[in-house]
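Hello,

Our lab assistant flagged a job as stuck in the queue for most of the afternoon. It eventually completed. Since we weren't sure the result was trustworthy after the delay, we are filing this so someone can double-check. Below is the sequence as submitted and the structure that was eventually returned. Let us know if re-running is recommended.
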Amino acid sequence: MKKIFLNFFLILIFSTNLSFSNEINEIKIIGNKRISNETIIVLGDIKPKQNFTNKNLNNTLRKLYETNFFSDINITLENKILKIELIENPIIEKINIIGIKKKSLVEALKATMSLKDRMSYTEFQFNKDINKIKNILTTSGYYFSSIKVTKEDNIEFNSIILNLDIELGKKAKIKDIIFIGDKKFKDKRLLELIASEEYKFWKFITNKVYLNKSLVDLDTRLLQNYYKNNGYYNVKILSSFAELDGTEGSFKLTFNIDAGKKYYFNELNLELPDDYNKSDFESIDKLFKSLSNKEYSLDNLNIILNEIDQIASLQLYDFIKIDVKENIVDKNKINFNFYVEDSEKFYVEKINILGNFNTLEEVIRNKFIVDEGDPFNEILYNKSVNEIRSLGIFKKVDTEIIDGSTSNTKIINLSVEEQPTGEISLGAGIGTTGGVVGGSLKEKNFMGSGVTLDTNFQISDDGVKGSITYAKPNFNYTDNTLFTSIKSTNQDNLSSSGYKITTAGFSLGTKFEQFENLFFSPEIDFTQEDLTTNSSASNSFKKQEGSYSDFYFNYSLFYDTRDNSFNPNRGNVFIFNQELPLISSDNEIRNTLRFTKYKSLNDTKDMVGKASFYLSAINSIDGSDVRISKRTKIPFNRLRGFEKGKVGPIDGGDYVGGNYAAAINLSTNLPGILSSFENLDFSYFIDAGNVWGVDYDSSIDDSSKIRSSTGIAVDFLTPIGPLSFSWSLPITKHSSDKTETFRFNLGTTF
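-- returned structure --
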């Protein structure tokens, strides 16, 4: 503000002295020590022998002040001599940030500062940088930090050393997360939805337990989207605020929610320009009919817009925009009118990307659906920006559209603000089947290339597992994700069953969307397996002792029509996997099918039924026996009421699994039971399954019999972590099966 006033004052003075033009015969520059006369003449856009007018003066003053090289500028023109008197800003010799031990944080703070070493110092810019640092520290949870600034001036060399002594203080911990107002949903569900977590002393790795403005903003968006996807069209997060608790450095994080009432789609209409072929948009009418009288959902609204966009692109309606107008009728129904209009015909001249200091530019450009030279399509432009935001590697994404060099072109300026993209997690659990400890280290933007690098491990009673996965999105500009992984497992059952299985391998594959909601993922997989036994092992295990090499081609089909991946109310999930041997010791083929359907069971849609089917089969194509380590079993969570792995064929006292396994699961939540308990959910289930088939020994009873059970499951969000337990009553079983009535699992993160 001071600089603007000074500029205005100087211009006002000289406008009275230079109300006419004068030719410049000589230029005198006084006061410059570091910056040469020639540089000043170029920076001020001064040309000898030119007629110097008021306009030229204003232009020179503005350009010289914009360089930040000078604190004061005085210009006079007498007797055709242009006299420029300057006071140079000091040069920054060094910026020292002390008091912070973490080098990465120091580097991050320096990167956000506009002022750097060897740049000209201005008080105005320095104060802006101090405010930036304060905001970053607050955003990172350091609400009690303080900054003490000292300056060391060197008058002889007109330089300055800036010392920033930062005391971080304790991080602001989230003691409690509270939801108030007309929130409709239980606290348990909302806590599972948001990113922030309550602080516990054992959570020493995650940063989500510290108060972070960016994370709270994310929580607010997650809550809004969740409510809007469940019919609450007018939901308002009235406030999200942190209140200092009596405990030192602790806050209560409160979300005040006004969900309002549920709304439903009523009439949906599409208005097209007269010269459009309405038959091109017949699929939109079908979509409208399927949504009429259905619960309002923001995702469904986006599906409509995407469908219109796809049709417009296929039919070459390049210059369009969509205006959506809604009208509430009958108190809780909404009419939507989609107006498709021809937009002005502009082309994209250039796309400028700013702020990506670490991220490669191609990572961002790959998400642009519109490219330089393409017609400017507002729908595709907005979709491109959302795609960039969805990468999850930028704290902020801002855009600006300006006029291009010609009347029919536009320039897109996209500015990003980067954020840390690494995640580290550690978890533990204990249950009726034993304990487990696991962890992962994940980087979502490895080397700034947009690559995801994920390392994880798990230690349990069954053994040790570990893997490293490298995933490259949009490989070779194909929109396909290329992934490769290295894996290793060690299953040590020498003391209990007399055998040990060690595997190591790697895989290379890709994943892409073949059709809408249908993903195809092929891969090649190489695995080396070693099976060792001792004297207590069964004859079957001893017979198969040795080393095996397998080279497989695997693929999977994944089809998902759920309305929401988190607590869905309706929709289906279909997954099919097949493993085909290329070079293998035993040449087994495995087929696995999973299907799950969700459906609301009452008008309020708080009671949701779930039906799922599981089928797995493994057989050798050359008639040889299926290796025992590859035989199939029913997944633990699909047959409650029975001990893990303790159903099916038995060989020498060992449950060896079968060639076939199948399960059917029916369940529903029970929202009416103890509904006032915010952290408690009940559900009712019926499980049925079977494991059968023994190809390597016909004398073994394959115990083919439908096992079934029914019971009640409870999910409780404890202060330690989520606790789930079930009480089961077996209905049918084989005489050799081992049953269990009670099962529980307790987990937490660190």
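-- support follow-up --
The delay was a queue issue, not a problem with the job. The result is valid. Confidence is low (pLDDT under 50) at residues 1-20. The CA atoms of residues 547 and 613 lie 35 Å apart.
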